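OP here, attaching both records as promised.
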Amino acid sequence: MRRLLLFFTLTATIWAAANTRLYLKDGDYQLVREYKVEGDRVRFLSTDRADWEEIPLEIVDLKRTEKEASEKAAVLSERIAIEKAEDDAILADKKQVASVPDKPGVYFADGANLVPLTEADALRKDSNTQKILQAIAPAPIIAGKATIFIEGKASKTRLTNTAPEFFFRLVKQERLALVRLDVKKNDRVVENVTIMPGADEIFEEQKQVPVFKKQYQSDLYKVWPEQPLEPGEYAMIEYTDGQIQVRAWDFAVDKPAVDKAK
């Protein structure tokens, strides 16, 4: 439907652009399909009478006629180029979406290529138990505070693209987010958790980065930040509110290398 609409729009535009105003020096004009200068006469194909006519060249404002025709041609050319660029982008997007693997996970869009991010081990440390670490599964809910973290100060996946795009195929129908990680000693904090007595209320504190999301399938999203990312440690996460269940795919954004030759 969109292509049919585009065809009719462009056809109408081209038809209108093909009609030229043949200006006269008194300010009036003739609407013509085409014209040509022959000696001291100007012959034109009138759009009103669909026939060839001619008038003296001396009464025609040829400079104004040619200037307007050139401007209309430039506008039309730009409009067609924009429409083509939009169509090309849609086709490229569809092609890239079709190339996303069925395997759940996060894939960094590096140009036309997709680079899978490695899922990190999300660990939990409870404040009321000394140095108790356990992988996130469903975890026992104990009143107090907990920290969900990834071991190590820095991700092995380094990006210099401050506006990265990711395809996220969910493991389950859960929530997804882009979060900035806090580096604490030798670990990177994904979220801090407060569990109220009785385990009736769980508060999860994440440093979520505002993102745009585009859904293609029930489990497939394209995600990209609303603003360029500052250098630092990040993770794409999948989580369930109130269950302290987090899966994380970590990466880092570095400052682009400075070209010393410039």
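Record two, same layout:
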Amino acid sequence: MNILITKEQLKVLIEQEMTPQEQLDKFELYEDKIKSLFMGKKNVQKWKEHLESKYPSLVFRFQIGNDVLIAQAKIRPNL
């Protein structure tokens, strides 16, 4: 049986196999960490869920600053 996955699904699988430090480094280098503060609650929740699924070894906190919402990450404790 052949299972087809998209490039995006493969990318997520690869990212989940990274060490916690590799995930944090990738988040810090490549992720868009700043969103408009006016995104709306539903979109903010989707953004948070996206980050948590993409980087399962990290925990996220959001900070408001100058009309934007900023995502901050650190390695999840007890890993």
